[in-house]
Amino acid sequence: MIDDLDDYSAQPEKLLDVPFVPTDDAVVQAMLNLAAIGRQDVLYDLGSGDGRILIKAAKDRGARGIGVEIDPLRIADAMDEAGYAGVEYLVDFVEEDIFTADFSEATVVTLYLLESINIQLRPRLLSQLRPGTRIVSHSFDMGDWVADERLELGGINIYKWIVPAKVEGVWKWDGVDDKPYRVELQQKYQEVWGSAWVADQAVKLESATLCGGALALTIRETKDGPPTRFTLNFENEELQSVLDYTGAHQGE
Description:
Blueprint: H1 25-35, E1 42-46, H2 52-61, E2 64-69, H3 72-85, E3 91-95, E4 108-111, H4 115-128, E5 134-138, E6 149-153, E7 156-162, E8 169-174, E9 180-188, E10 191-198, E11 201-211, E12 214-220, E13 228-235, E14 238-244, E15 249-251
Parallel strand pairs: 1-2, 1-4, 2-3, 4-5
Antiparallel strand pairs: 5-7, 6-7, 8-9, 9-10, 10-11, 11-12, 12-13, 13-14, 14-15
Helix pairs in contact: 1-2
């Protein structure tokens, strides 16, 4: 009966938020490819079910992983499968609620949850995960947080987000010619816009592209002149360094 009612755990009267539906092997492979998972990664699968995503990542790519699952029956199955696959030293499964679990160590997070659950989880993903962490979701998106990439496999959508740094605010630096630059930025997820000044003169901020902790800016100082390009690198909500178009590094 338990096998027939996959939205229940083995514990009596315990209804799970998300029914257990195994992910097809081709979709698992596509998720791992989209996340570009490698040996250096730490993968957290939130709602890990029978552990097949973590086991595949460990067996084929040498990635370490943690599965967060509220159902002890699924955890027991996953631990058995990890043992059969010979990757029990790379993966672990913990019985915990995804809304209270600490997954800040992750470099990649995978999800197969409902959209409503993804949206509830979104603030924790943005606050816990480091900029540049990849999030890959099977079938369900994140509401108004638009995915950085999306692919379709046999009618199934797979979404990928890259956690953005928090860059909203005022940032200042000196160019290689000692000209002072200043930008005032606004932000919604990875979308960034704002205003720019050079030596206290307003100029045009043509583009701002944020990927993880790297913010690429294009500033046009004169109408007919070439644009000036910078990459601002952020860590712990602070500007750490600036790379200008000549390739010169500058510390903040």
